[in-house]
Structures are given as C-alpha cells and as structure tokens.
Amino acid sequence: MISWLNHVAIAVPDLKKASAQYAALGATVSEQQDLQEHGVAVVFVTFPNTKIELLHPLDENSPIAGFLEKNPRGGVHHLCFEVENLDAASRKVAEIGVRILGNGSPKIGAHGKPVVFLNPSDFQGTLLEFEQM
Ligand code: CO
C-alpha cells in the first residue's frame, strides 16, 4: 500500500539561504511559491529519485512557525509517501491504531493532490504525509 517516497519536507529559518546551499551543490531549485491556504512559503528541490520541500512560515499562525520555534536552526518536518488509494490507506492506518491529524478527511496538498497526515505520536515521533497518486 505505501509506495514511493515523494518528498522530504524540511523547515528552514532562511528560505533564500537554504535554496542557495542546495543550488550550490548542483541541485535543481524552484522559485519560491507562497501557499496561502497552508500558511507556508515553499521551494522545491528536485533530485533524480525524490524531492525536498523547503518550508518557511508565511506568518506566526503557520503550522511551521511553532516547529521553528522548537527547532530554530530548522530540521526535518515530514516525509511524504505516495499511496494509490487514500481511503484504503486511511482505513489501514486506523486498523493499526494510528490516528490521522485533523478531522481525518483528506486535504488538498502542495501538489494539488489529496493528502492526509498521520499523528506523529502514534508513529515513532515522525510526521508522515500520504499523497494520493
Ligand atoms: Co509535504
């Protein structure tokens, strides 16, 4: 059911500096995109086998703002895995006793596809995102 690693999301205190560091290493770095509905500015870094999303809060209400408060130098925020069927994946997640964040129903993610996030308290302290392909 769980499939390809789609992206690793990293919260960064300085989006320009982070972008410049990856670009200096020869990675393909996108322009900054402001995703108002998610409260984040994001830069996509593309590699041959996966992507990194560099995340920075748009304002103090952003979900990333609290994370950066606890991790001021930045850090890994979540891992995103592709799933074929989000409803089936959500049922399986419930079966193994893992809660989905929010009201449990999918939201539209940064790539315009439905996503859910698993409660990190139920999953080794790691925030996982499932994105329907
Ligand atoms: Co993500």
Describe the structure.
With 133 residues, this protein is α+β, with helices and mostly antiparallel strands. It has a single domain, classed as 2,3-Dihydroxybiphenyl 1,2-Dioxygenase, domain 1. The chain contains three helices and nine strands. The protein has helices spanning 15-24, 63-70, 86-95; strands at 2-11, 28-29, 33-35, 40-46, 51-57, 75-83, 107-108, 114-118, 128-132. Strands 1, 2, 3, 4, 5, 6, 7, 8 and 9 form a nine-stranded mixed β-sheet that branches. The termini are close together. The protein binds cobalt (II) ion. Cobalt (II) ion binds next to strand 1 and strand 6. Residues 7, 9, 53, 78, 80, 110, 129 line the site of cobalt (II) ion.
List keywords for this structure.
38% strand; 9 strands; 3 helices; alpha+beta; 133 residues; binds cobalt (II) ion; nine-stranded mixed sheet
In short:
Helices cover 21% and strands 38% of the residues.
| Terminal CA distance | 12 Å
Q: Could you estimate the helical fraction of the residues in percent?
A: 10-25%
H and E string: EHEEEEHEHEEE
Small-molecule binders: cobalt (II) ion
Q: Could you tell me the mean pLDDT?
A: 95
Alpha-carbon Rg, integer: 15 Å
Uncertain parts: none
Number of separate structural domains: 1
CATH topological fold name: 2,3-Dihydroxybiphenyl 1,2-Dioxygenase, domain 1
Q: Could you tell me the strand content as a percent range? A: 35-45%
Query: What is the structural class?
Result: alpha+beta
- Main sheet makeup: 9 strands, mixed
